[in-house]
Design a protein that fits this description.
single chain; alpha+beta; six-stranded antiparallel sheet; about 270 residues; Arc Repressor Mutant, subunit A
Length: about 270
Amino acid sequence: MKKNEYLNVGIFSEKSLAPLVDNKNFVLLWLDEGSAEIIFNFQPLRLKTKKLYVLGPESVSRINKSKGIKGGVLVFSIDFLQMDGKDYTSDIFRLFFVLIENPVVDISTEQFKEFRIIALLLYKEYTKPNASIQILHSYLKILMLTLMRAQHLDASIPKLNLQRVHDFFLLLFNHSKEEKSVTFYARQLNISAKRLNQILHIFTHHSASYFIHEHLIIEAKRQLVTGKYSVKEVSDYLGFEDRAYFSRFFKKKTGVPPEQFSLLYYKNQ
């Protein structure tokens, strides 16, 4: 997959998906032929052909099984989105919020064909030696607006609360190791914790605490499965003052103690 500071476009394969394990960007991927199963936030997800999958920042992915796969991968950064202002970025975040737990886009065969035509135009521009960032961004915007229309998401809705959700997730990505209270994030957004939870429920059906805890668990799993770090090191890395408390927190959320997680994870692969 060819690399660029803001945008990567390539063929969907085990090689192209490997760098997404520590992904901080948005990802669109699709399967034209073959069969594949990826690990999405440590849960198996079987991919279907002629469907689109959206993976948000901080998700963890790898190909678990594949056979005769042919498809595409589109990776783009938050900075690349914000070339057109925060309002547009918030609209894109909304698409990912809707699909935060089940990342498949409900799209018709005709809509998928339309998407592939635009994606091909984007890819052709991307591979040119003198590729224009402005043209690439325009194609990406058309792609995302097409997907939003397929999901019946109106891009013209009032933006204030959507912007707050967008800002909450950016704050979470940057401060989750140091700040684990809903109050901190609410104060940064100049609203009450109750109001933050109300807004998140409107767009995601989950509370702020849910996302804070899920983010910590995903990051803990990411560290544990490497086999490089002890439970205490992971606990310290995530900002827990007490290893025992971290172990209780992890077991409560996952059903297994952190000492056993990586063993069970690889045993089930």
